Amino acid sequence: MSPTASSPSVAARMSRQSSRDTAQELAVRRLLYASGLRYRVNARVPGMPRRTVDILFLGPRVAVFLDGCFWHGCPEHATSPKANAEWWRTKLDRNISRDRETTDHLAAEGWTVLRFWEHQPPEEIAHTVQDLVRSRRKRP
Asked: 69 in a domain, yes or no?
């Protein structure tokens, strides 16, 4: 059972949280597209129902995740809510575990998985992704 929000302002803020097409995702995708790379957006994880990859390159088998610091447990910026603390800790721990499971599954299937935090500059992310995708495409 889900706890109720600790205040109306918290409820409003949490309902506005986007799980896709965040500002960072859009910025990274624009940079990748401008560099000539083509990709799939919010593609399903092969073999894992109800899981998606933020940016997926099918040919070179590269999966890119842009993780929010709060939702995915950034070691630098993650915070723990004080209201409903136990419920939140369980939920956030499940997110981290699910991320690890998804990464392990994709790696076992031969994919290269790149995970970035929301605080990382989009230009840095795009550069790293471009380099990897282009190097994977050059392989025989």
From this structure: yes
Domain count, the chain: 1
pLDDT tens string 126-138: 999 999 999 998 8
What is the span of the domain harbouring residue 63?
19-138
Alpha helix segments (H runs only) across 1-140: 8-15, 23-34, 69-72, 85-108, 122-138
Question: Phi then psi for 66, rounded to 5 degrees?
Answer: -115, 100
Is residue 6 situated within a structural domain? no
Q: Find how far residue 49's CA is from the centre of its chain.
A: 16
Q: In this structure, what CATH number is given to the domain that contains residue 126?
A: 3.40.960.10
Write the CB contacts of 48 (distance below 8 Å, at least 6 apart in sequence).
102, 105
Is the pLDDT at 10 greater than 70? The verdict is: no
Pick the closest to residue 112 from 124, 95, 129 (CA basis): 129
Q: List the one residue out of 73, 64, 81, 66 whose CA is nearest residue 20.
A: 66
